[in-house]
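Researcher: Quick one. two chains, 656 residues in total.
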Amino acid sequence: MKKLCFVFSLITCLSFSQNKQILYGFSEIPQALLQNPGGKIKHNWYFGMPLLSHFHANGGSSGISIYDVFANDGVDFNLKLQQAVNKMKPTDFFSFNQQLELFSGGFAFGKNYKKNEYLSFGLYQETDFITYFPKDIAVLILEGNANNINKTFRLSQLSTSAEVISVFHVGYNKKVKENFSYGVRGKIYSNIININSINNRGTLVTRPGENNFYNQIFNLDLEVQTSGVKSIIEEDSDFNDKDIVKRALLGGNLGLGLDIGFTYNLTKQWTVDASLIDVGFIRHTKDIQNHKIEGEYNFEGVNPIFPETNTGQTAGGYWSEVRDDFEDLFSVNDSTATTYTTWRPVKFNASLNFAFGEQRSKSCNCLKEDNGYLNAVGLQFYAIKRPKQPQFALTTYYYRRLYKGLRAKATYTIDSFSFNNIGLGISAHIGGVNFYAMADNILEYKNIYNTQSVSLQLGFNYIFNNK
Amino acid sequence: MINNFIKYAFIVMLSTITIFSCTKEIDFNQINDVSLKPVVALNLIFFNALASDFFIDRIEQSTIKDTVVIDLFNRGFIIDNLVKAELVFETTNSIDKSFNIKVDFLDTSNRLKHTFTLTAPASPLNTDIITSHIEVFENTSLDALKVSNKIELTLQALSGGMPLNNDTPGVITLKSKGVFFLNIERDTK
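Model:
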């Protein structure tokens, strides 16, 4: 039962943004460099255990939780559904992000004995999905138009984007001075699958009419762009695992990206850092299939008598014209293969940190040479660009070195999902082996369905530590 | 020693969090109870006729008839989900002559399934006289509606008043809409 529970809760984690607030600034973990290429580096070289070095999953629903709708509480399901629709706003969203590092590594180099430059590289796969809640359409389905005369149902609320990509990256980090480091990371994206429908427009409205009760106005301008999907869904598709591998290994639609970041020590104890991640695009030119529904129609009804005097048509003809007009309106235009470009969701991180509690060596009661502080507290800011509007998160944290080989970080985050997100992460170093695990929203785990977001990261590295 | 203890403590804690994470009951089968009840309003038939329109080729037309094929009510989605329909008719007459509007519902074999008649009273002063009629379709009448694919409208000028000619003032209009009460449930068959 517990096993089942475990699997189920893991799936729930999976089935649910991208904020890695616990990992950010956690400089003992090499993957923190992917959050800020200009971060501090505390090792000489490392390699990630292939396929195990970084797993990340994060998902959420900004408006409601699964529990709100599916709780077995005896309340009528339709009532809960109605309440959920009423509660949610068109800016509410469901999102999911997952990353799996296939391999990664890094090493320090430099001219003199104190190597102050560092090169890191790797390949990871990423899935990113977001869909906004089309509230007007939900209301139309639940209530209909009869009691919503004059209400404009906006189709622009339909907004979805999904992508599966692989990312090759090489990063360079330089400690310019004792108190200042910067870094850049170049990325090549290879798109495996993309589904993009973020520029929808149109309205449906029923207004009091002139010739008949209503003026029913249909204005549709909907489009979905896909790449990498056609070859999978077409009838005689011979798509297989090899094709996925091929696409992942630069065989897909390609794009370029850049990460930049820095760390600056204001004083011995105060540090600021910031980074900009995934400033980049993917150009979709292969295996494209786009669909569009476009048209405008004003429906007054059928005018059967005296058609001669009004339009010169027979009634039967008039009806079939109405029907044809509707069919034209809602028909999906022939698919096109027009190339398109998608922008990656740019992320911005910044933090202000204060380290305290000097670590004294037992033998001499003197300060340890490097990174002599046991504790740190700080404030982190995170923002991500999303199709409709950016999302923000603010985190405060407490970091503690527990023992030589164990560091922990606790976070408190305010974001689109909740105001009470507490996260916990540890990084254990046993010899050269590093294991880290972190999860947020841990207070909600007593009822995982009631949580609106979950973020999870874990991984194994081998680190050659000299600092 | 303590070092190891802390290490394990953390690992145990994290796994405990994960293992005991589903305690409250969730029932996804509730999705089977979903029942959507939208009320959809749709324009149906309208016309707008001058009194002189009844005077064609110098002959007064006392009856004008037309049939409209509407393959809407007999569609699968409607048959499965329509629980009630109200067809709302409104006539506005400013002609000094009363009219009957007969609305017949015919099936694919042109058999009469349902009928009703509305009367638009004469307007001696050529003012707008508005008459409304709501035909409610439930149970047997709803079944009749669901096998209909045509509406036949017969507009009949009733005797009395002045004969209609090219100079007769006034207009008769008809507006109509359908208000469809749907109940869409998950098909559990």
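Chain B touches chain A through 58 residues (CB under 8 Å).
Researcher: Thanks, that's what I needed.
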